[in-house]
Design goal:
The chain has 222 residues and is α+β, with helices and mostly antiparallel strands. It has one domain. The protein is built from three helices and nine strands; from the N terminus they run E-E-E-E-H-E-E-E-H-E-E-H. The strands form three sheets. The chain has a five-stranded antiparallel sheet, covered by helices on one side. Strands 1-2 form a two-stranded antiparallel sheet. Strand 8 and strand 9 form a beta hairpin. Helix 1 crosses helix 2. The longest helix is centred in the middle third of the chain and has 14 residues.
Length: 222
């Protein structure tokens, strides 16, 4: 399916992207993920649906079927899933979207690191299958070659549906910036990686079984 594409080579220092789908690929700029390699082995998020023309700009770059639909269980780490992280001090609600194995690992780390700012009763204890929410315009940060996204409920980034190069919509006032920064920093530090030629799993919460699951999915598609 992906014959000839390079896999691996991405490092922890290169994990951060921007608000743009297609960011977070080391040494590559421009939006969209079609035809790209796998610097962190994980597949980019699949938003599903069909492309359209919105305000004169095409959204086809969001709707590639190259990596299957969000519920495609053959993607490394399993089908896409989400977890919710509400603020304890404001109405801000953040969500993490990635493959199931990654979300499972991050829930533990994010709850441990950001507990002082989280409404723990409303925080996810396990991933939920992705059912179309959150949406691309709610993304405030992509990571790991656009295979992880942090989103904010109510945020509407008009640049997602504008021409490439359109400035991002600013984060609205009243958002819990302390929690947002904690989530962002923790994802950057704790997101699971398959590192180097040794294919070593860098997510201690998932351990060996998590590594086997991801490797099985990767090599079954070569």
């Amino acid at each position: 399916m992906f014959a000839g594409r390079v896999a691996g080579g991405g490092t922890r220092n290169e994990i951060y992207g921007t608000k743009t789908y297609g960011s977070g690929y080391p040494g590559i700029t421009g939006r969209g993920v079609a035809g790209r390699g796998f610097p962190f082995y994980f597949w980019p998020l699949a938003w599903g649906g069909a492309g359209a023309i919105v305000g004169g700009a095409s959204t086809q770059y969001l709707r590639t079927n190259e990596y299957g639909q969000p519920n495609n269980s053959s993607r490394p780490g399993g089908a896409m899933a989400a977890a919710v992280f509400p603020s304890s001090s404001t109405k801000s609600v953040f969500r993490v979207l990635a493959d199931n194995a990654t979300v499972t690992a991050l829930i533990t780390d994010l709850k441990a690191n950001c507990s002082s700012s989280l409404d723990l009763l409303g925080t996810s204890t396990q991933p939920s299958p992705y059912g179309g929410y959150p949406t691309p315009e709610q993304v405030i940060q992509y990571y790991r070659a656009s295979s992880i996204a942090l989103t904010l409920d109510g945020y509407n980034n008009s640049a997602v549906y504008g021409a490439e190069g359109t400035p991002d919509t600013p984060i609205p006032s009243g958002v819990d910036m302390r929690l947002m920064d904690c989530l962002n920093q923790t994802i950057g530090l704790a997101a699971p990686l398959l590192s180097g030629a040794e294919m070593r799993w860098a997510a201690p919460n998932l351990g060996f079984l998590g590594l086997l699951y991801v490797l099985w999915n990767i090599f079954s598609l070569v």
